[in-house]
Design goal:
Radius of gyration of chain A: 15 Å
Strand order of the largest sheet of chain A: 2-1-6-5
Shape of chain A: globular
Largest sheet of chain A: 4 strands, mixed
CATH architecture of chain A: Roll
Order of helices and strands of chain A: HEEHEEEEEEH
Oligomer: homodimer
CATH class of chain A: Alpha Beta
Number of strands of chain A: 8
Strand content of chain A: 35-45%
Helix content of chain A: 10-25%
CATH topology of chain A: Ubiquitin-like (UB roll)
């Protein structure tokens, strides 16, 4: 479909996709999509990414139940980055059990973990 | 410095950096950083990116005046993506003259431009 062709996929056929909590505005995670992941995300209105480590489609929440329902999908000016506005089921996006993957803050010259996991990470991977 | 080594730079020595408006939570843009860009951003507390098209450091706002003052720098769980909380001088991050680069919304199977430029783009590039 045209909208898939209009994205400027990188040399691996991927584009970065940022998931943002539609209610709070918090940035939850950055993952990657290929054509199929974006097509499925648009069709199903839930986030489907491409796992670079597993080299497979990754239906967010398929094992944890922590699905991301999509309210809106946006593309940037040079068509190579995507933002998803999502409703994060369970309020936890990160496989470490935290709301957001961005829980390390730069303080001086150190990355400091500034949030504790809310749940045991083993419960919620995926 | 250690904090630079802890980032998992990709095969080009880069990591994606998301700039988010510290006041509104709006995602303004996604750009790229290399070690030097992150080191300078941390030191100067203003956003410095790596321009992949120009293959050069890109001090955001150096030609437009639309500097991004950094309030906070975060790193994600797998240490390969960065979020900057910024104060966007002039309220315009995008070279097209818009507040955010993410002004195209997926509606059905079309990307629709849902925001008009606030200023002539030629005035504000950079």
């Amino acid at each position: 479909m045209d909208f898939l062709e209009q994205v400027k996929w990188n040399s691996d056929g991927l584009a970065p996709a940022i998931a943002q909590d539609a209610e709070t505005g918090r940035i939850l995670m950055l993952a990657w999509m290929n054509r199929e992941a974006l097509a499925l995300s648009a069709k199903e209105q839930r986030a489907v990414y491409w796992s670079r480590s597993r080299q497979a489609l990754w239906r967010k929440g398929e094992s944890s139940g922590h699905v991301q329902h999509i309210r809106e999908i946006r593309l940037d000016c040079d068509a190579d980055a995507i933002v998803l506005q999502v409703e994060q089921v369970g309020g936890i996006a990160c496989h470490t059990g935290r709301e957001s993957c961005f829980y390390q803050r730069l303080e001086g010259d150190r990355w400091v973990t500034v949030e504790a996991p809310r749940k045991d990470a083993r419960e919620i991977y995926g």
